[in-house]
Protein: peptidylprolyl isomerase
Organism: Hymenobacter guriensis
Amino acid sequence: MHCLPISRIGLPLALSILLAATGCATRPAATTAVTPAASVPNKFSDATLRQIATAQDERNTTALLPYLSRPEARYRREAALAFASVQDRAAVPALTRLLSADAEAEVRRAAAFALGQTADTAAATQQALLTQLTAEPDRAVRRYVLEAMGRCATRASLADLVRLPPALATDTSAQVGQAWGLYRAALRGITSEAAVARAVQLLPLPVPYRARLAAASTLSRIRNLNLTPYTPQLTRAAQTDPDYAVRAACAVALGKSTDAAVPATLAGLARRDTDYRVRLSAIRAMNAGMYAPVKEAAWAALADANAQVALTAAEFFLNHASKEPGELFLTKASKLTEWRVRATLLAAALKNGGPARDTIRQAIMQRYATATSPYEKGYLLKALSEDPKAYKWVEEATFSPNHPVVIGTYGMEALVAMRQQKDFPSVQHATFARTLQRGVSSGDLAIMGTAAEAIRDPKLALRAQFPSVEFLTQARSRLTLPRDLEAWQSLQLTIDYLQNKPATPQPVAAAATHPINWDVVQRVPVGQKAVVHTGRGPITFVLLVEQAPGSVASFVELVGQGFYEKKNFHRVVPNFVAQGGCPRGDGWGSSDYNLRSEFADLRYVEGAVGLASAGKDTESCQWFITHAPTPHLDGRYTIFAQVEQGMDVLSQLEIGDRIDRIELLP
């Protein structure tokens, strides 16, 4: 599954029955003992906390609401936090009352967090948060209230977040909350000139680190923003902030400035910053308009000691190179040893091929023939997508029998990308349509899903070429839910598109198909560690059983079954995530069950371990580790562990690297 959320609305009765019948109603017991004699038991020895967590897992608002009135603050807090995952707006009035009236600060803080997670934009919710901001005596709670204001903001209410009450002007905790509130609003496309100006004001020291990070992240994430007036402040932060994550985000933000000094600043960061994530971000911020003054720094970055930086430099040339001969990239690619960097530069060579395009295409095909890694072969197919003349060759590779599934996945993606090229011959449009129908009928999840997605791409305008949906419905009937959810949904959306019907809601398996295994949870002590043994070295996690009991139990069970042994890291995005655990090895595989999302009060800091999903409540066996803070994932993907040791190993991981085994430490 991919780290891209897909919204969903409800579940038709027929699909509910289907999921109940095909979900994992039974499962093998975990085979790994995890509780040392002297370990600290987790909080779920308390039966009431198990009941609250079960109600959360079942999305049972009716069962949870009474716990908000319990005399024990512990239970009120846990019930409030449960609604951060349930996200039922029917609970908003009760949460609002809890926020305004509960005597315990930790309960009010949980209520504020849960209210933010509901993203309720109703005027009553916004007024309740604003009222609490001025009445709240606890600094930490005020910080949560401000962030919740951002999650629930409208364009009209944003001004209340931008202007802090005078009494909070020097409160550093309020600065942190305000900065994150501005960030959460910006993620939803809600911002203003005043909000941008306030974010810039929060960049310099002595503003606290978390406020600076939120402010820099806000400026880096807002699209279509002209930051030219703020170039001096961004440059200063990108060059001098003591934290790499702030410098990296400000480097990205500099790419939104047209100031003449920016290219030299980015080139300097790419060459000299001590942290690879800043160097990488500086290259990523470079664009076609600054190609000439930065290209020498990008050439140098191809030899960076960190392969993620080198790959980003190759991607820069692929995306932005102009007036360069294809032979230049071919020559430079032949001298590279990192296969993904080399394949990406070969794509740049083919894209800019000119008279040498045929020679370059043949060179890529020859390398494909000698490559031993299916992932490298996949990337070479991806490179060939730059040249429509390679269509027949790529199609044959995609559908050749007995190849690793990864090759078919990359191949179909390459064929679709090739069709999107401006020079794709119109006489081949009918051939492409037949290829897509062949892909849908192939029986391979990734090929089916990718082909179906292309059919419904409005830019390709293929509706007239598919007057019947029978081949799609036949392919869908061969899938098993919830295991094949992504492919099923892609086919269903395409059926809806061709029939001019509203999109069918994505089916979500009911909790009854895979309830939390409390026997396993209660054997996992606080601080339980897991070591992921890779060919590059070990990475040690601390499992967060108290925050994500269902996810941790599933992970422990899968580890005990040896599920992850010899699996690959199939997805590595520079300065974002390394993702593994897919049984297919291409991101389209799953277990036979889905989990419900567990959105605890945690953040995606460096080394956070999250569960991949196709949207809320569709988590399964795949997980990812973040290279750096990735706050746009907060509250959208379950965090079930945190890296304790091995970030140096994580920075070296490449697509195709293997998970030899995972060991639960005694």
Remarks:
- The CA atoms of residues 119 and 152 lie 5 Å apart.
- The longest helix spans residues 172-187.
- Residues 46-216 form a domain with the Leucine-rich Repeat Variant fold (CATH 1.25.10.10).
